[in-house]
Amino acid sequence: MKHIILFLYTVATVTQGVLGARDQCNSTVPCPLSNGYQMDCKYEFGGGIGCACKRCFCPGNTQQFTYHGCVPRPKIGESCGYQNVTVGCLTSRAICTVESGNTCQCISMHVDDPPHYPSHDLERCIPKPVLLDQPCSIAAPCDNIPGAVCGVAHQCACASDSYPHEDGRSCIQAPRIVGDLCSQRNTCDRIPYSECITGQDGDLPIPSDLPTCQCRPLYQVPHLGEADRCLPTEIGLSCSDQAANCDLIHGARCHGSEARSMCLCPKSLPNLEFTKCNKK
């Protein structure tokens, strides 16, 4: 008898809690919690069934059941069974199937719909990205976008040594040597003392109608095998001990601070053309 009374009390309590949660609410009568989820106070239209008033409803990431209250919707790969009921998946692009062991799995909505895969947080089903900035995950990598990787924001982005193409469908490798193609976005910053020039031939033979990295005026590449830098050719020009020294100027050395250095003659005077240091 005690068990029957306890059972009836439990059912009554649950029913009262759930049905009571559907009672009318307003600014002074807020909605209660259900299984730890704060219910939302929303307007319910009449139409012969509703009350045309504000009632408490389970939040969107849960499903409302009469005897279970607000039950969390499972993510992709999670079980969709809860006690004796089946809970709808968190995303409408996933369904619960027996073949998957009663877990939520991504599906295609129609014949022309591309395959969808779990997002990084397992809350959505996404197609394999074809454009930069589209969402990606381990299951949906950026393989369709040459040079792109799945970035920390879980969006396709160009690797650190490349730049986005204007169409957003590929990444262009950053210029590394004089003569490489460049653009306003794909700059020549990796090549010391170079700039992006269009319609002008530089140290290397290139098509004159395409923008390419070329040495600044009075700078040259050491030789074809070292086109990754441009060196100064006259005394007084800016230089760098590591990247752009004064090797093309006989007797000159790079002097100054890290922020500002120039080629100077350490123990003699330059010639009249400032192209080398005279012997003592």
- What composes the largest sheet? 2 strands, antiparallel
Number of helices: 1
Average residue pLDDT:
85
Principal-axes geometry comes out as: elongated
**Rg over alpha carbons:** 35 Å
Helix content: under 10%
Low-confidence stretches: 1-21
Terminal Cα span: 118 Å
Provide the β-strand percentage band: 25-35%
Based on secondary structure, the structural category is mainly beta
Strand tally is 22
SSE sequence, one letter per element: HEEEEEEEEEEEEEEEEEEEEEE
Widest sheet, order of strands: 1-2
Search tags:
mainly beta, two-stranded antiparallel sheet, 280 residues, disordered N terminus
Description:
The protein has one helix at 2-21; strands spanning 33-34, 37-38, 40-44, 53-57, 62-65, 69-72, 81-82, 85-86, 94-97, 103-106, 116-118, 125-127, 148-150, 156-158, 162-164, 171-173, 194-197, 212-215, 219-220, 231-232, 253-256, 261-264. The protein is elongated, with a radius of gyration of 35 Å. It is 7% helix and 26% strand. Strand 15 and strand 16 (171-173) form a beta hairpin. Among the domains are: 56-111, no CATH class; 128-173, no CATH class. Residues 1-21 have low confidence and may be disordered. It is mostly beta strands and 280 residues long.
